[in-house]
Sequence to fold (193 residues):
Amino acid sequence: MSVSELLKCITVVSGNDAAVAMAEYLSGSEADFVAEMNLRARELGMADTNFVNCTGLPAQGHLTSAHDIALMSRELITKYPEVFDYTKIWMENITHMTARGSSEFGLTNTNKLLRSYDGCDGLKTGSTSKALFCISATAERNGIRLISVIMAGPDSKTRFRNAAELLNYGFGSCRLYVDENRDALPETKVRGG
Fold:
């Protein structure tokens, strides 16, 4: 599979096999990739996170917080906006080549907010028996982009409803400030800075 197809499988349908294949391709092994994940998490200030695998599946010592997921999400969408080319795919077919020939399979996004929430264009859902139903949702309206993180939702519908409620609160409270003063500020000395 191509890197692009693996990214589609990871972002659209949470393909754990694709995540491991990508980790091995990038770093030689999943363990080496996870070490890089933890290093990057520390660089981003993700103080409550420790990755044990690249899939997010339950494992002893695998931890994170909603705040840390928001930090990671912000870094991803601001530094790599091309991620939206993948996260906003609703449905797509991929052709898989094997020794027995080719077969086509369909991907349907697990993020139902893409179809039900105005401005939603990502980001990632997740669910396990231990973490329950989680999402990092992002949406943009009128030049304002927000991130909503829900963890441990009791069911999928509650996860999406709570994420939408947080986004609604944010869009209802935030305004984009435009400085109408076009005069240049005078040069100023800064002491102790």
In short: The first strand starts at residue 91 and ends at 98.
